[in-house]
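Example 3.2
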Amino acid sequence: MDKNIHILSLRYGYEHQTGFNYKDLKELLVNIHKIEFTFELEFAFRIWFSQAFFNPNVEDDVNHRKLNPSSGFNNLYRNNLLPFDNSTNNIEGTTSFITGDSIIQYLDYLELKEARSNSITAKKYASVSIVIACLAIVIPIISAFFFPPSVQIIKPHDTKFEIKSESSEGKLLIEYTKTIEEKVKISDTTILETSQDSLSLKIN
């Protein structure tokens, strides 16, 4: 919560644009926000208040002090903070209004405060994103180092293929093959004998 009496006063004036009493504002600052007013602090605060807020009872005196810097509050301050003059005391019991310039200053303050808050939030989110990205990179590396993956090598099994001729066609094919082989053997034997006979005749 803001503890600056100027910000608190601007907020109070902004929330009571139809007018408010200086005495009520001071009671709010003292009782709610625990502001301890010394004589010097209230003296300076009244100077600022008379410029930030409009009060028809003291406006002429305020304008006179703006045009004559050596008069009014400045003279009082130089003379050991003498009691407030009559015009300033008139602020307490009369209605004051926040000025247009003070409203603009207060709205600028709210925008600056919101921008600063958003900036802090954005920095937090950015920091969290960076941490998550770093963890996403580091965790797999650490996991692979301490918990290496197990590789299982599968050896191929010896596979035997057996051809079974269980059908009748398969049996006929085998018998036919055997018959051809026998005929080829007989033919080879006949040719061999004929060749030997021819060779014997030539020799004789």
